[in-house]
Amino acid sequence: MIAPEKSLRVGETEKITINLGLIDLGQIDLLVQEGFYSNRTDLIRTAIRNQLQTHADVVRQTVARKSLMLGLQHYSRADLEALRDAGQKLQIQVLGLASIGADVSPELALATIDSVTVLGALHASAAVKAALAGRIH
Questions:
Q1: 2-5 contacts at long range (C-beta below 8 A, 24 or more positions apart)
Q2: Which of 26, 39, 40, 108 ranks highest by number of CB atoms within 10 Å?
Q3: What are 41-99's pLDDT values in tens digits?
Q4: Are strands 113-123 and 69-75 parallel, antiparallel or unpaired?
């Protein structure tokens, strides 16, 4: 099994953008102003965590059913070269963060990665992402 990279941290965040109606946004600002939350982000993160907790059983069952790796998964050049030399290929399935080393060439990625399914974020060079575009689901 390929080990997580030490430099990646569980607390790392990924920026998202959402559109909210003005009334919803005003209500959020009111709750922040009244001291219920430190800022808009605090309220939104809390709301998301509450929803994820509500659906935790479904997430657990789906992760198991789809054989997803949970958390941070890093694929280094050495890992992929070892797979290539052994004549094996990867089906990357991650819920969290999948990271492909910056020194991985597009050719090595194509030779060793059959498919990529990431629910979360995929960190890889632009060249590797372009090479794998037809294999990313």
A1: 2/73, 2/74, 2/75, 2/76, 2/79, 3/74, 4/71, 4/72, 4/73, 4/74, 5/72, 5/74, 5/76, 5/99
A2: 108
A3: 999 999 999 999 999 999 999 888 888 888 999 999 999 999 999 999 999 999 999 99
A4: unpaired
Q: Is 120 left (phi over 0), alpha (psi -120 to 50) or beta?
A: left
Contact 74, 5 (CB under 8 A): yes
Q: What does DSSP assign to residue 136?
A: B
Contacts of 47 (CB under 8 A, 6+ apart): none
Give yes or no for a contact between 136 and 110, defined as CB atoms under 8 angstroms apart: no
Tokens coding 116: 């990529």
